[in-house]
Specification:
Length: about 160
């Protein structure tokens, strides 16, 4: 009986792990690789949490092309350089790595850089707030009644005589 209960509990935990798990993906892009292209469908978003570069003279960039009705393209993120050199010519000052979230529909491209190795970590996820319609579900607005006190008797100030010595 104990084994049956434990196996049922384990099955619930395994189902919860599968339902919640949405792992990040990592990709290494060397100068001999082809471009990394990530398609972000409508009602999804792409979250890039790490984009670094070792070597090369040019910076790696994340380019986004919007494929919806708005259209357009832009570079939205540059790689954080990791300089492993030492000595007087070292450029090992720390750089700040940024994150970016890209809403779909879009096409995200990372081109390889000559002489460099790029590393990117990302996650593509469903936009749960969109309700499958590509936009925000409108919330009905109900009018709020404005209450005012009913007019009543207004007290009239009266003067009080006081005796002065």
């Amino acid at each position: 009986m104990l084994v049956a209960r434990l196996s049922i509990a384990l099955m619930f935990f395994a189902a919860a792990t599968v339902a919640v798990a949405n792992p990040f993906k990592s990709k290494i892009i060397t100068s001999s690789d082809s471009a990394l292209v990530i398609t972000v469908p409508d009602d999804h978003f792409l979250k890039i949490t790490n984009f670094t570069q070792v070597g090369g003279t040019d910076r790696g960039v994340v380019a986004v092309t919007l494929t919806g009705e708005d259209g357009g393209s832009a570079n939205v993120l540059t790689a954080t350089r990791i300089d492993l050199s030492t000595g007087s010519n070292s450029q090992s000052f720390p750089e700040i790595g940024n994150r970016v979230i890209i809403a779909g529909p879009a096409s995200v491209t990372v081109q390889p850089v000559a002489g460099a190795t790029l590393f990117i970590t990302y996650r593509k996820d469903l936009d749960e707030g969109a309700e499958g319609g590509g936009g925000v579900t409108p919330i009905p607005i109900t009018p709020v009644p404005i209450l005012s006190p009913t007019p009543g008797v207004t007290p009239t100030p009266t003067a009080t005589a006081t005796a002065t010595p």
